[in-house]
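Quick one from the shared queue. A colleague (R.T.) flagged 2-C-methyl-D-erythritol 4-phosphate cytidylyltransferase as missing a structural entry in our internal table.

Convert sequence to structure tokens.
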Amino acid sequence: MYLLIPAAGSGKRMGADRNKLLLQVHSKSLIAWTLLAAEAASSISWIGIISQPHDWEDFKGIIADLKLTKPVELITGGATRQESVYNGLLALPDAAKQVLIHDGARCIATPNLLNACAEAILHCPGLIAAIPVKDTIKVVDESGIIQSTPDREQLWAAQTPQGFDVKLLKQCHAEGVRQGWEVTDDAALFEKCGIKVRIVPGEETNLKVTTPQDLVIGQFILSHRE
Ligand SMILES: Nc1ccn([C@@H]2O[C@H](COP(=O)(O)OP(=O)(O)OP(=O)(O)O)[C@@H](O)[C@H]2O)c(=O)n1
Ligand SMILES: C[C@](O)(CO)[C@H](O)COP(=O)(O)O
């Protein structure tokens, strides 16, 4: 299975002085933890890291240190995650019929989850890892007044990996550019194009390291993986 790792963000919400994926947890960068999961997932045969050229020197050093056995390519990222993924799709080898997309910032996902998604995408056009929402969610207007309380039974928190038929996802991204759609995940493009996306059970621990608090939680979870 081909794996694209969006890793071209700037980590504004982390407030660090560099791409947050270069920050370290237990002596390894966040991107290194993500790459180790991909290396350990038997289903993954090719890895594309979508990243900004100014990070390439650091990324090349990390890749060399990990002594990965799988081919890894660096692909130039865009100004948004959406643009970065589209760049990644256009850089996939022609042989890629399905692809998994997994955020570099979700560095705690297990190889098992990558394998489960890789198997499931062989049987459907699109999928995402997701978990049922535990909180009661409120829809709130600009003045801070609650408008509604959606039925929690229907609410799921989206994660990555997200898996897709490559040809369909390329078409959905092209349509997104034509229509000016701005989305925060690839499943949303499938949804807008009316293509079914299936849920695969995600992992409670598969958080996206976004803020300094997430870094502390991530450190705790990963301390059991060393
Ligand atoms: N232009 C971008 C923006 C984000 N990403 C990647 O998409 C994933 C999810 O994005 P997020 O966690 O929001 O990362 P950042 O954009 O770095 O964070 P922030 O929004 O706080 O700036 C990350 O692995 C990030 O590197 C990307 O490849 N290209
Ligand atoms: C793809 C994603 O990780 C699913 O939870 C998320 O949507 C990434 O986008 P964000 O803008 O960083 O929230």
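Residues 81, 103, 158-160, 184-185, 208 surround LQXTBERG (ligand 2) (CB under 6 Å).
The two ends are 26 Å apart (CA to CA).
Added to the table.
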